[in-house]
Amino acid sequence: MTQDELKVMVAKAALDYIPSGSVLGVGSGSTVMKFIEQIGINKVPVSAAVSSSNKTTEALKAIGVNVVDPNETQPYEVYIDGADEVDPNFNMIKGGGACLTREKILTSMAKKFICIVDKSKLVETLGKFPLPVEIIPMAREQVARTLRALGGEPVLRKDCITDNGCEILDVHGLNITDPLALEQKINQIPGVVTVGLFASKGADIVLYATEEGVKVLKRG
Ligand code: 5RP
């Protein structure tokens, strides 16, 4: 089975988690694109959605979903998104698609985060996937120096300006044994908009696709 087929499988499974009559939070990335495709194919009613990227907004609008401004929405039930890595404690690295800031905002508004991945994203310790950090361009070198002092090797993502007009440093070489502490530490650096560590609010449910079907991990 290809990784693409696994993504379709988990995207289909996520349809069961769409709340009826409530706003749905929608993440970004290729797995989420498959999820949006499945909403369209199966004509699943979605009363309205909040979106974590311009690309997601376009895809949702293309299948007729009403996309609303988070400022005009109350905290809502369910946010569905992919991840680049997920550890056994439901901490995640996100931001491979450069949408981490809006994803974190929507995560903070959701009662439940449902993470949809294929099995390749499950890891024992976060950090093999370079940690994305969205930064204000004028702070690039100073943030990079600080990240080096924390033991990482930041690399500016080429040809990437986020939906917020910012840049991304991908931090290589981290072995993240305390995701919450590192998330807080990096968030404190002046010029950092968002770090792609989702630990203070991680996933509540992880759906992961395997050749044997979709497995469900639930917190606590
Ligand atoms: C985008 C993200 C994505 O959820 C993450 O990169 C996973 O993407 P994909 O489903 O394409 O593997 O965080 O910013």
Walk me through what this model shows.
- Helices cover 28% and strands 27% of the residues.
- The model has no long low-confidence stretch (mean pLDDT 97).
- It is globular, with a radius of gyration of 17 Å.
- By secondary structure, the chain is of the alpha/beta class.
- The protein starts with a helix and ends with a strand.
- It contains 6 helices and 13 strands.
- α1 (3-14) packs across α2 (30-41).
- The longest helix has 12 residues, at 3-14.
- The strands form 3 sheets. The protein has a 6-stranded mixed β-sheet.
- β1 (23-26), α2 and β2 form a beta-alpha-beta unit.
- The relative contact order is 0.18.
- The structure holds ribulose-5-phosphate.
Low-confidence spans? none
Largest sheet entry: 6 strands, mixed
**Bound ligand species:** ribulose-5-phosphate
The radius of gyration over CA amounts to 17 Å
What is the first-to-last residue Cα distance?
A: 31 Å
Strand-pairing-aware structural class: alpha/beta
Individual helix count: 6
Query: Which whole number gives the mean pLDDT?
Result: 97
The ordered string of helix (H) and strand (E) elements is HEHEHEEEHEEHEEHEEEE
Strand content: 25-35%
Percent helix range? 25-40%
Order of strands across the biggest sheet?
2-1-3-6-12-13
Taken from the alpha-carbon principal axes, the silhouette is globular
User: Quick one: how many beta strands?
Assistant: 13
